[in-house]
Predict the 3D structure of the following.
Amino acid sequence: MRSWWRDLADLVLPAECGGCGRPRAVLCDRCRTALSGGAPRRVRPAPEPRGLPPVHAAAPYADEVRAVLLAHKERGALALARPLGEALAGAVRAGLGAAARGRPGSRGGTGTAAHTPVLLVPVPSARRAVRARGHDPARRIAYAAADELRRTGVPAAVLAALRQRRPVADQSGLGSRQRTANVAGALGVVPGCARLLRRGRVVLVDDLMTTGATLAEAARAVRAAQGPPGPETEPAERGRKASSNSRPAFVYLSETGEGSGQRRTPPPAWSGADRQPGRTAKEAGGEHVGAAPGVVCAAVVAASPDAFGIHRN
């Protein structure tokens, strides 16, 4: 009981900074600056996996930033989700801004596309990892990022659309080619989510990018699901008739209650016109930009320092 109360007290009054260990601070000023004090940047792993969308990161994965991510992910320092989410929100804004600037005739993101909902699609953790940690770090950070984006006027929601279709080996210690082979075909879209994925600007989110293999696989799964649907066929489950017993799609609008938070379909930001059956995001006024239809970009809290190389930006 004493240990349980200590853990509970740490959620409210953390014993030390998640980055440097300074007492009585969720995140001290120095570590907060390391995490989100700089402008998010485009990052590219080398070699860059095929199908990887443009990725922006808030900070290099080193020193205080590495300590903060590990404290949240492995030690359950859940109070760090808020500052991590704020850093992720900055990377999302940078990615959306770069995509808008790259659109022909764009004026920096103004127009109807800027008002199209942003769907943060977190890369799912392995089920065994979620059980061991007691939470899904990327999804929890995504909740906080969506809250921050909405606070600043961006119509954002979290769509937990991806799931693991098969077990994968632990990625640590694997090279880029091994990681690509390890996750190939491992992700799929939850039945019922494909239609929602076509109604917004999809941003894939994760806490960390190393080789980019997992984000490339997530993009592949989303793109496959966004193919033209038949009248009774879900793109993510081609050849299989839609059933009334299919698992519903949940759009999470709050970070409270990770597994059973508020859920509404579609989110309030969508207008009545956007909810018309069969309409794609382009028909509703939100043109898809980026590497492929529907996937605008990807955003992460941190990436390996090598991915920040100026010669590849």
In short: Residues 81-101 form the longest helix (21 residues). The CA atoms of residues 288 and 294 lie 5 Å apart.
